[in-house]
Amino acid sequence: MSTSLRNNQLALSATLAAVLVPTAIALVFFYAPVDEDGLNQKIFYFHVPIALAAYACFGWGAWKGLVHLWKGKPGADLESYVAIHLGVIFGAMTLLTGSLWAKFRWGHWWLWSERQLVLFLVLFLFYSAYFMLRYSVEPGPARANMCAVYALFGVVLIPVSWLSIRLANDFIHPTVFTRHGPQMSGSMFFTFCVSWAGLLLLAATMYRVELAGKRLDARLRELRELLA
Amino acid sequence: MSTYLADVATLARKDLRLELRVRSVVPSMLLFVVSALVVFHFALPSGSSDLAAKGLLWVAIIFTALLGLTRAFVAEREQRLLDGLLLAPCDRSAIWLAKTVSMLGFLVVAELVALPAFALFFSGIDGATVAGVALANLGICAVGTVLAAMAVAGRARELLLPLLFLPLAIPIVVGGVGASVADEPARYLGFLALYDAVFAIISWASFEYVVTE
Amino acid sequence: MSSSEKYVAAAYLVVFVGVLAWVAIIASKLARLQREVAELVELARRRRDAA
Q: What chain C residue is nearest to A208 in terms of C-alpha separation?
């Protein structure tokens, strides 16, 4: 893919994100109805899309890992790394916004009964260990292979962990608090979708920018070696 | 197929024979698990339920397994045996299976001491707990072997393995504690079997990528 | 501001701060890359003059 086409993709996703995210914010505050939870429910419009964006990043990272192992495409390892890096960033934001939601809704900064948050905690630990792995091994094909395998383990862990957390809640925390289900009215759902689309595009933009930066880094190193 | 299993048997036999001669891993695991159980006695305030103790049994098992797994590939790396193994005309995944089997052996030996010790120090062990331990062992060794191979390739290998292993061990702990503690252990045993199946398959399939240079 | 509004604002702030922190890090990386390019251009120029 020529650089101009690549740049256009980046500009496109950046523009779309820049349009959709403020639209979503406007919709959240001026359009979506205030439900019985009060204003706090507005956090939900960002917390859940951020969580979904994080899952998308982890999935993309695992996909690129698979591409690396299976097809051996040279850029795939870097793409996998950047996707997972972004996933961890979004995961951290999920935990923070989720904690704020829990504090307001239930009065505690952390709730083991909030399954989505617990799942993110486990995934956050798992993918943070990814970086420990990556930085303890010398760069090279061995490291790329190992990281790709680890990314695949991660994506398998997501459903297994979710299931285990569900099972755990039955004997650790009998469910006293019921989750606010997605029984959203039409206008709420529309706001949610706009927010989701906007955040996914934001994630895509951040991914492309970070990837471009790292690729540029590698090219410059190559240039330096050629000139030295 | 028969050569595959023969390779696995040869490699597993090598590990077991080495351990019989050197006797480093299993005695440490035995001592560790009993010491851990004693520590847990002091860690549990009086009036703690039996259930809390059962939970701690699983902590002991996970960390004892971790101790054993840390040693899993060290001999191979240090004496460059891994390169020799990789040159051998066997399927790479056979190395994984052999290592998993030998680790399973060590862990079972450690548990043959740990479970009676637990029954002695705390409360009795029922059939569901034993079944849970048996199923969990498979998952621990399957996943642990792959992660141990990754960790040993890097620098701070003893530090790295626990970090890699613990998030993946959480579902095992949930399944195991559930099997020990809940009224209907069948669900948790089924979950452990699912974990074992899923992770054994991807461990088996991905191991060769972890050891290629 | 009521308490609930504070929490909502805090949640949005978290997202905002997160993204802006990322922007700042990328910006500093870009600055470093620009410096490197300048150095390499200098190196190439010197090579061309020497040749």
A: C26
Two tokens at A71? 């097809």
Q: Which chains neighbour B (Cβ–Cβ under 8 Å, 3 or more pairs)?
A: A
By Cβ distance, the residue of A39, A93, A217 closest to C33 is A217
Cross-chain residue pair B171–A153, CB shorter than 8 Å: no
The size of the A-B interface in CB pairs under 8 A is 99
Residue A142 lies inside a defined structural domain of this protein? yes
C36 within some domain: yes
CA distance B92 to B95: 5
> For residue A144, is it within any domain?
yes
ipTM score over 0.85, yes or no:
yes
**A90 within 8 A of A54, measured Cβ to Cβ:** yes
Domain total in chain C: 1
Cα distances (angstroms) measured from residue B142 to each of B1, B96, B172 = 20, 8, 12
Structurally, how many domains does chain A consist of?
1
Residue A203 CA to residue B187 CA, distance in Å, equals: 38
- Nearest chain A residue to C48 by CA distance is A227
Q: Is A11 part of any domain?
A: no
Domain assignment present for C18: no
Question: What's the pLDDT tens digit per position in C1-51?
Answer: 567 777 777 888 888 888 888 888 888 888 888 888 888 888 888 888 887
Q: Is residue A138 part of a domain?
A: yes
Query: Quick check: A40 and C19 CB within 8 A?
Result: no
Q: Is the CB of A39 less than 8 angstroms away from the CB of C2?
A: yes
Residue of B62, B82, B206 best to disrupt the A interface, most CBs of A under 10 A: B206
**Residue type (1 letter), B111:** E
- Does residue C7 belong to any structural domain of this protein? no
Task: Give residue A138's domain range.
Answer: 44-175
Q: Which stretch of DSSP H or E encloses residue C34?
A: helix C3-50
Taking the CA of residue A86 and the nearest CA in chain B, the distance in Å comes to 19
